[in-house]
Amino acid sequence: MALEHALLVSLSERAGSGYELARRFDKSIGYFWSATHQQIYRVLKRMEEAGWVTVESVAQQGKPDKKVYAVAPAGADELARWIAEPVESTPTRDELGVKVRGAAHGDIDAVRAEVARHRAEHARRLEEYQLSEKKFFPVPDQLSGTALHQYLVLRAGIRAETGYVEWCDEVLQALRPRKGDHRP
Amino acid sequence: MALEHALLVSLSERAGSGYELARRFDKSIGYFWSATHQQIYRVLKRMEEAGWVTVESVAQQGKPDKKVYAVAPAGADELARWIAEPVESTPTRDELGVKVRGAAHGDIDAVRAEVARHRAEHARRLEEYQLSEKKFFPVPDQLSGTALHQYLVLRAGIRAETGYVEWCDEVLQALRPRKGDHRP
DNA sequence: GTCTGCATGTAACTGGTTACATGATTAT
DNA sequence: ATAATCATGTAACCAGTTACATGCAGAC
After folding, report:
1. Which residue has the least CA–C1' distance to nucleotide C5?
2. With an 8 Å Cβ cutoff, are B90 and A90 in contact?
3. pLDDT tens-digit series, residues B129-152
4. For A82-91, b where at least 16 C-beta lie within 10 A, e where not — what string?
5. B79 burial class (0-12, 13-18, 19+ CB within 10 angstroms)?
6. Which parts of the sequence belong to the Transcription regulator PadR N-terminal domain (chains A, B) (predicted)?
7. What residues contact A21, with CB distance under 8 A and at least 6 apart?
8. Per-residue confidence at B1, pLDDT binned at 50, 70, 90?
């Protein structure tokens, strides 16, 4: 049940509406815990019922009302409790891996093309992360507190994307057409 | 819907029962697509109804009967179709990342201990993978076909675990207690 | 006599996705 | 006109987890 807690982390930094949270999740926390707006709305409702967050309806001009959520004391307690609790490492799920593994039972050219496509996507994301790193954390040695923690998860993203891109290259190298291959 | 297809890949290599598949999934394919036996049983049933696999009840001595599943022509077609189809990259989900990100709202010592625990687990798995690499793929340059594809996903596992361990080290280094910190 | 391995399953639940709906405002 | 952005939601569905049940064989 990490979504609840991811939302609590985000709301601890700044109160916000479901919509805003959904967009924050496209960055930072969303790098390693994504969520759709529907999911977020539902979970926020549940959290409100549990007393973990408080809501305040805010009227806006020209825009629909929004419900601004903020962390309640019970939510802060819950977050602290959860952080101290041990977690199992989330199992990996990678469809592209399944395809590479099963490549012999399908069109190898198609698999290679897919890997190339994913390589491009991950490389793009990596660049984005590296840009953020330069821009927001130019002197990482001096970071502390939340800024340091933000930096560390960005580093996780950078490492993950770097590794993925390298793996794609290895696959593309290994699956490249060779003499003796004959395709119709 | 990758589980169906992961099962088809596994069954294409060798027919087997749900139980056997569950254990095969603890290795190789399971490195990046895990599944419980219940999940596997359910999906196999669905696949049988769809005509993707055939079943044969096999009596055994001293052991309960087992249902041996094999890929049907429709299943092979479906697998080939799916392999050629583009996939979105599976979003990352990492609870430990959420904890590090929210470390300021909980007990930093506990987070550090968690990271250390996960580091150990991933290091252990990495060693396991590296052992498999040495044992089963001592001369990777000469691989082709399914053996090559198996090797490549093992490489994915090795890269992922290596990266994770390195990241844990980076976090442990960054979150180590420093002068000026005062905890009760 | 207790535990592990083989082998299959039901039932209840939780977490997450997809599709659809509404309605105003601003930018092209 | 039309699309995008802001903002919230319902409903149906799918995927995956957890708990429980059964029963025999062989090892310790």
Report:
1. B63
2. no
3. 999 999 999 999 999 999 999 999
4. bbeeebeebe
5. buried
6. 7-80
7. A7, A10, A11, A40, A44, A69
8. confident
- pLDDT tens column, B72-99: 999 999 999 999 999 988 888 999 999 9
Nearest to B160 by CA among A132, A3, A91, A101: A91
Buried b (16+ CB within 10 A) or exposed e, A24-60: bbeebbbbbbebeeeebbebbeebbeeebbbbeeeee
Q: Where are the alpha helices (DSSP H) in A56-107?
A: 73-84, 95-101
Q: What letter does residue B8 receive in the DSSP assignment?
A: H
If you measure CA to CA, which chain B residue comes closest to A118?
B89
Residues 66 to 125 of A: which have CB under 8 A from any B CB?
Answer: 76, 79-84, 86-107, 110-111, 114, 117-118, 121-122
Count how many Cα atoms sit within 13 Å of the Cα of residue B7 in the half-sphere of its side chain: 33
Beta strands in chain B (DSSP E): 53-58, 66-71
Q: Which of A82, A132, A155 is closest to B169 using CA atoms?
A: A155
- What confidence tens digit (pLDDT) does each residue in B2-50 have? 999 999 999 999 999 999 999 998 877 888 888 999 999 999 999 999 9
DSSP category for residue B102: T
**Cα-based distances in Å from A17 to A11, A38, A40, A166, B182:** 9, 13, 10, 38, 35
Place of tokens 């052991």: B63
pTM for the structure as a whole: 0.92
- Closest C1' nucleotide to A65's CA: D7
Rounded CA-CA distance B150/B144 in Å is: 10
Report d(CA A176, CA A159) in Å as an integer.
26
Helices (DSSP H) in B137-184: which residue ranges? 145-174
